[in-house]
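Hey,
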Amino acid sequence: MGLTNVYGVPGWGRHGDGPGAALIDGKAIAAEMRREVGEAVAARVAGGAPAPGLATILVGDDPASHLYVASKHRACAEAGIESIDHRLPADRPQAELLALIEDLNADPAVSGILLQLPLPAGFDAGAAIDRIDPRKDVDGLSTLSVGRLWRSQPALAPCTPSGVMELIHRSGCELEGATAVIVGRSELVGKPLAAMLLAANATVTVCHSRTRDLAAVCARADVLVAACGQPAAIGREHVKPGAMVIDVGINRGPDGVVGDVDFAAVQPIAGAITPVPGGVGPMTIACLLRNTLRAAEPAA
């Protein structure tokens, strides 16, 4: 089946008789989400409740991680969320990191806990993530959070796949009965996104490096999500005319940042497409803020 022509993206349906696929503006959608979170936080505080609090943990001195954490703190400030910054040298033992997480689990001022990845060599990231209280696991990466997601139980879901789902929904795409193909099976994006798409009643295929005839599998997709971490891996031959194409890839090269999709080749035949940058990227922090707000709300 094809997708119902219900995209709310301006210019949807231009393929074949116009300049190509409509652009899905992740910056605009993320800004809308951040406004919504800010308004909800303001209403919460006006009602006498404390502002949500996000505790970040940064281990070591990775420059990129420092930039990511700083951007998250700025976003929190804009939304009225309190941010608590914890930093540990890379030479501290794993036990000290675990003890810090336990302290934050018990701190009522902390609604959400974010452990910035990757951790330096010698740390067990999985064990540290699993020590985070699932009710505060705003990255949605602990074993319990992932299990709840696959069981369709209430859980804080990983931020990047949540952002993909928001882009799809807010663009007006009807997923029920649609064929969705994900290229990439990572724990961060591909696997949790498959669970979310299944919960939305899409028919889901997850492709990977061993998939036979990848182009043929992808070309059946009404919604195609590229999350394989390979520049321009998805070309015209992978895309069904009129499909929605979501590019999760962030690849830095001599020509700047590019996605996993060959945008110039795919944009003329797709129905709607995310650019890189400016597509999925801004959605991740917006979903982190929303998860922090949700974590602060009383359990139903």
